[in-house]
Structures are given as C-alpha cells and as structure tokens.
Amino acid sequence: MAHEGTVTAVSSNEVYAFTKPNRESITLLAGLGVEGDVHAGVTVKHRSRVAQDPTQPNLRQVHLIHEELFAEVAGEGFTVTPGALGENITTRGIDLLGLSTGTLLRIGDEAVLEVTGLRNPCVQIDGYQDGLLKQMVYRDADGRLVRRAGIMTVVREGGTVRPGDVIKAEVPAGPHRPLERV
Predict the structure, then answer these.
(1) Strands, E, within the chain: which ranges?
(2) Is residue 175 part of a domain?
(3) Which CATH number belongs to the domain containing residue 34 in this structure?
(4) What phi and psi, each to the nearest 5 degrees, are found at residue 105?
(5) Does 179 map to a domain?
(6) Which of 122, 97, 106, 86 has its CA nearest to residue 11?
(7) Which of 61, 87, 121, 132 is deepest in the core (most CB within 10 A)?
(8) At 159, is the secondary structure helix, strand, or coil?
(9) Containing domain of residue 135, as a range?
(10) Pick from 64, 72, 78: which is nearest to 161 by CA?
C-alpha cells in the first residue's frame, strides 16, 4: 500500500452545493476543517446529520478522494473532475481507502489530518450523473459493501494546502483498523 502521495487539487465552497470549486489553496483550521467551507465546524454540518442530532462531533471536516477513481469511472462512461463529488482535497498515489482508522496524513509543511472513516455516498451522486452512485458503492463478489467515494478526516494541525503538496501517511501502532463509514 502506498503511504505517500500528492495533492492534485483543493476545493471548498461557502454554501451548500454538491460540487466544490477548485482553489489555488485552502487553509485548514485545527478542530474545525477548511476555512470558509460550509462543512467546517466542531459539530456536524452535513444537513442529514444535523437533522438527526446537531450536537454530534464533526468527524467529516475534510473530505479526500483519490484521483485514480476518476479514471476508473471514466472507463464506465462517467466524467468526474476534482471537486465534483464535493471533496476538499484530491490526491494521487496514496491508497486512501486502504488506510487504517486513526492514520495521520501530513500534508505539506504544516497540516495534519486524522482519518476518521469512509464517506458514505448518497443519492445526490446520481443527481450529479445518473448511475454514478453504483460506481461509488456496491457489493463485491463476497457480498461485502464497498464504498469508494473517499475518506473523511478531522484537522489535528492547521496549515495551508496547495496542489503539488506531498502527503505522507503515518499509520497508528497496533492492528490495522479498517475504515468504516462516518
């Protein structure tokens, strides 16, 4: 598994929308998320979660997706570009989905994210492109649910993140803890 990669794009949006415009840089704020992004905060900001319990801790402060996924779904006829699925950081070369819960991602010179789990893809993905949801979540040959729409993290140390920044994963000690949906 690759434990090092590169940031290929960064995105944020100050309003609720499915996609997020690409930016030259984003600023991560410890304990909050992406400065100026609608999903930043100590407690949940995703509308469905706020409706359930607005006091839940925000384990979904920063969303990352691997750019390699875009090429995979292109082979099935879908066009997905950085920020299109609402992620804040698009990566290349690092196996995000294979990381352990609690992995620290050091990005650039300052920022540190802690991996909390998998993004749970929702029906809004089909609103973006009909049929895309089946590419993001499906059952494998053994009947296990596979989620491929990226990972969620919280900000442990703030800093500026730009395309081209190196990402280094520090896997926690102990047994591998597979990512669950958050």
Answers:
(1) 4-11, 22-23, 26-29, 33-34, 62-66, 89-92, 104-107, 111-118, 137-139, 145-147, 151-157, 159-161, 166-170
(2) no
(3) 2.40.33.20
(4) -110, 110
(5) no
(6) 86
(7) 61
(8) strand
(9) 4-170
(10) 64
Taking only the tens of pLDDT, the chain with its 182 residues reads 679 999 999 999 999 888 999 999 999 999 999 999 999 999 988 777 778 888 889 999 999 999 999 999 999 999 999 999 999 999 999 999 999 999 999 999 999 999 999 998 888 899 999 999 999 999 999 999 999 999 999 999 999 999 999 999 999 999 999 999 99
Q: What is the largest CA-CA distance in the chain?
A: 42
DSSP class of 100: P
Distance between CA 181 and CA 163 in Å, rounded? Answer: 27
Q: What is the rounded distance in angstroms from the CA atom of residue 18 to the CA atom of residue 132?
A: 14
Angle formed at CA 15 by CA 161 and CA 35, multiple of 5 degrees: 30
**How high is the mean pLDDT of the chain?**
94
DSSP 136: H
At position 72, the amino acid (one-letter code) is E
**Which pTM value belongs to this model?**
0.95
Question: What gap in Å lies between CA 59 and CA 43, rounded to an integer?
Answer: 8
Q: How far apart are CA 126 and CA 10, in angstroms?
A: 23
- Among residues 177, 158, 151, which one has the least CA distance to residue 34? 158
Alpha-carbon torsion angle 50, 52, 56, 58, nearest 10? -40
